[in-house]
Amino acid sequence: MNSAHLPSKSESRAMNISLIVGILMLGQKWSAYLLTGSIAIFSDAMETIVHIAAVGFAWYSLRITYRPPDEDHHFGHDKITFFSAGLEGALIILAAIIIIQTAIDKLISGVTLEQVGYGTALTATAAVINTILGLYLVKTGKNNSSFIIEANGRHILTDAWTSAGAIAGLLLAFLTGAYWIDPLMALFFGANIIFEGGKLIRRSVQGLMDKTDPELFTSVNTILQQQCDDLGISFHRLRLRVSGNYVYIDFHLQFPDDTTIEHAHLQATEIEQLIATSIMQPCDIVTHLESTSHHPPDHI
């Protein structure tokens, strides 16, 4: 049984908005950096460059992931979702390294801050916009079971926190005259960005390695057990994996010897439909039918 799914208007709209807003925020943050000379704001602007590159690939990936299976890709193209998240994580870490190098250089050579008021206002506006956008993307991603959009939203929320921290560091450095606080805050942001990028890469690797979702497995196993108990049959070899927006599930059902193939197939189809409805996610379910007494001991 295969549950077809097409990209929704909300998913396409979310990615389009993310890309447009990202480009606008880049101009705003670089203006703030050029006005102030703040390394903390520079770190914020650098992350935005990385974000735009990642969103561009995510925008492309969203269109690839829903392509139907073809001659060269029998299981579809949805694993590009994990490549997208992994690339975003790697780019985030690359930006963090540049930020840390720049901050260390400024700690050694010294920092000069100018036009702090204008720079703070521009960065604060960007932080508010990114917070709203990030929350919207995370919600849209969860509602559509889209890892691409959810990962994008979480990156933007990290960007918003970076902006808020940059503002705090810039103001504190300006008000106290301890300008070294500004690059020190940038070092802190760099370390935090590396941590967030690492989490994205870890989740990407888990997806590419078909790591089983324990909650989803327990849910499907419970449904199977209940249905088999009601029908007087049994099951074994339940397996599932999440690939992008799709869940692939397969298991074996054992029927009494006198069960006709038509009746067994009907019951299996009902179980598949119940599972597909319960997990609320596009899925591909394959069931192997077999009799109880003719099941070979070495059958896998």
Task: Spell out the key features of this protein.
2 domains; single chain; about 300 residues; Alpha-Beta Plaits; three-stranded mixed beta sheet; mainly alpha; 8 helices; Alpha-lytic protease prodomain-like
Gyration radius, rounded: 25 Å
Would you give the CATH topology of the largest domain? Alpha-lytic protease prodomain-like
Question: CATH superfamily assignment of the largest domain?
Answer: Cation efflux protein transmembrane domain
Helix-strand sequence: HHHHHHHEEHE
Number of domains: 2
Mean pLDDT: 81
Task: Tell how many strands the DSSP assignment holds.
Answer: 3
Low-confidence stretches: none
- Distance between termini? 21 Å
Counted by DSSP, the helix tally is 8
The strand order across the widest sheet is 1-2-3
Give helix % range: 55-70%
What is the CATH top level name of the largest domain? Answer: Mainly Alpha
What class would the helix/strand composition place it in? mainly alpha
3D shape? elongated
In this structure, how is the largest beta sheet organized?
Answer: 3 strands, mixed
Describe this structure in words.
The chain has helices spanning 9-36, 39-65, 80-109, 116-143, 147-176, 181-208, 214-231, 261-279; strands spanning 234-243, 246-255, 283-291. It is mainly alpha-helical and 300 residues long. The chain folds into 2 domains: 9-208, Cation efflux protein transmembrane domain (Alpha-lytic protease prodomain-like); 214-291, 2-Layer Sandwich (Alpha-Beta Plaits), CATH 3.30.70.1350. The protein has a 3-stranded mixed β-sheet, covered by helices on one side. α1 runs antiparallel to α2 (39-65), α1 (9-36) packs antiparallel against α4 and α3 runs parallel beside α5 (147-176). The two termini are 21 Å apart. The mean pLDDT is 81.
